[in-house]
From TrEMBL:
GO cellular component: extracellular region
Chief location: secreted
Protein location: Secreted
Annotated source species: Mollisia scopiformis
Domain topic, free-text comment: Has a modular structure: an endo-beta-1,4-glucanase catalytic module at the N-terminus, a linker rich in serines and threonines, and a C-terminal carbohydrate-binding module (CBM).
Listed InterPro entries: AA9, AA9_LPMO
Record bears the keyword Metal-binding: no
Cofactor(s) of this protein: Cu(2+)
Function: Lytic polysaccharide monooxygenase (LMPO) that depolymerizes crystalline and amorphous polysaccharides via the oxidation of scissile alpha- or beta-(1-4)-glycosidic bonds, yielding C1 and/or C4 oxidation products. Catalysis by LPMOs requires the reduction of the active-site copper from Cu(II) to Cu(I) by a reducing agent and H(2)O(2) or O(2) as a cosubstrate.
Top-rank taxon: Eukaryota
Biological process annotations from GO: cellulose catabolic process
Protein name: AA9 family lytic polysaccharide monooxygenase
């Protein structure tokens, strides 16, 4: 029995070595720490050896997230991860940002060993990166779970220009991997109306077991947008719900498989025409 438990722990620790999310945001040149779920909640198990940790209850703009990837497209965790989709359990902040300014998010993985959780370089590089926003009811996002057809896409990143097929390189790797990776920078739409918004970053990893389907890494942050006069919000045709926006049969998702990176190039990867899941990017019109 002891051996079984040890084997389980070792397997789990090894498997866990390549998952993560957003650890920091740079919004209008202010750095905001993220709110990874494992840091405080594994405390009793892992001790206090988490150099990258933030103490429990520290106010954050970010909804709590768990390092493990999401696979289930109909799970409420698709909104803002586990357990950021529910009422935030930590005091919540909003980062002020003017419409037209940028948000840069930096990713890391959480490396687990038997005594510590360590922050390490982002690992994945096959698949798109998509960023959504949702307008929160009232002047704060606190306690709101992002339910309904409220999400609009503000950016999406696919293959690096010049890539010859779906083996890449993908922008995901360029932006997120390596010690000097720049992170992913997006502009808050200049036309956006003043108000509180959730910003939802989504990394899709297409390099996964075919039977499991694509992996999703979702993180949400709260911002308060100072919009210009005559600010707008996107119309219905740009708005989707999470969960609900994606199906596993979507062309850009059903191609997930380890073969995207290894062995003979399958026909389905022999193209540069990648079809992003979700709605069109809102351009500030309509
Ligand atoms: Cu991973």
């Amino acid at each position: 029995m002891k051996l079984l438990i040890l084997t389980f722990l070792l397997t789990w620790a090894l498997n866990a070595a390549a998952h993560g999310g957003i650890y920091t945001y740079n919004i209008s040149s202010v750095i905001y720490q993220g709110n990874p779920w494992h840091i405080h909640d594994y405390g009793p198990f892992y001790g206090s050896g988490n150099a990258s940790g933030i103490p429990a209850g520290t106010p954050s703009i970010q909804r709590r997230w768990y390092f493990w990837p999401l696979y289930n497209l109909s799970s409420p965790n698709m909104t803002c991860n586990f357990d950021g989709s529910f009422s935030p359990t930590t005091p919540s902040l909003h980062a002020p940002v003017r419409a037209g300014e940028t948000i840069t998010a930096s990713y890391n993985v959480a490396n687990f060993n038997l005594t510590a959780v360590e922050r390490d370089q982002w690992y994945h590089q096959y698949g798109p990166l998509l960023i959504y926003m949702a307008r929160c009811p009232g002047l704060s996002c606190a306690g709101w779970n992002g339910e309904g057809e409220v999400w609009f896409k503000i950016a999406e990143f696919g293959l690096v220009p010049g890539a010859k097929n779906l083996r890449g390189p993908w922008m995901q790797g360029v932006l997120l991997m390596g010690t000097s990776s720049p992170g992913v920078e997006v502009r808050v739409p200049g036309a956006l109306k003043t108000g509180a918004y959730l910003v939802r970053h989504e990394v899709v990893n297409l390099q996964s077991n075919r039977a499991d389907g694509a992996q999703f890494y979702v993180s949400c942050a709260q911002v308060f947008v100072e919009g210009g006069e005559g600010g707008k919000v996107p119309g219905e045709r740009f708005s989707v719900a999470f969960p609900g926006a994606y199906k596993s049969s979507d062309p850009g998702l059903r191609i997930a498989g380890n073969e995207i990176s290894d062995g003979e190039l399958l026909e389905e990867y022999n193209t540069t025409d990648y079809q992003f899941p979700g709605p069109l990017v809102w351009d500030g019109e309509g």
